[in-house]
Design a protein that fits this description.
mainly beta; Jelly Rolls; five-stranded antiparallel beta sheet; four-stranded antiparallel beta sheet; 19 strands; 4% helix
Length: 252
Amino acid sequence: MDIVNWDYLKNKGLLVRNALESPEDLVLVAANTTYKKRGDLFQTYAVPASALGGGGGGGGISLINTAGLVSGGPITTTGTITTRMATNRLVGRYSPGTGVMQEIILGTGLTFDVPTGTLNASGSTTLTQIIGIAVDGSGGTVTTGLKGYMRVPFDCTITGWTVIALTATPTQAIQFDIWKNTGALPTLSTQSLINTGAGGVKPRLTASQQLANSANVNNWDTSLLAGDYLAFRVDSSVLVSWAVLQINITTV
């Protein structure tokens, strides 16, 4: 399609306009489309607007100059439209309601992999949580034996333990054990996840301690899977009326 520049012809003195014509008028000459007689001073012909969109007369726009709008040069029927934006941005919309697309800035811990463009979490995704049990002597000393069960809800790793008593006295002491089984409740001492024979240390308070904690889980079976069952037991208790066992776990 050829476009005749009205302003260029007017400035060169090649066209004369009468006072009734709109200043915004364009004279268009195009191939393979329908023309309409304008009825102006020179009886020129113009292309109907519908032809510019590819409908009606069979014509269409084959090139648009996009300087200042999008990168990549003019758009043609075989070209690609690309937008210009800063590094580490997404295109979407964060403002309420319907509207134009906006640049979304990547937050902390998110990065793009170059050159694949994959969005990755670069920060730490490890989450530390606590599981455990509280035991109460109901006014007397905590008794030994089984104190409760729990089902592990997700895959995790044991990283440490804490034992807390109500008070600290020179003669009190308490020690816990933890049994594990898959698919059913643990009922055997051989199911203890702490291998004391290899040097594993069970969670405990000794004389005059009100609080004890440790990250030493050497010779523990520290890997817990979703669906595993744990049993919490008191191995021994001396003058402890109340205590809490906390097991630190991490999930990814």
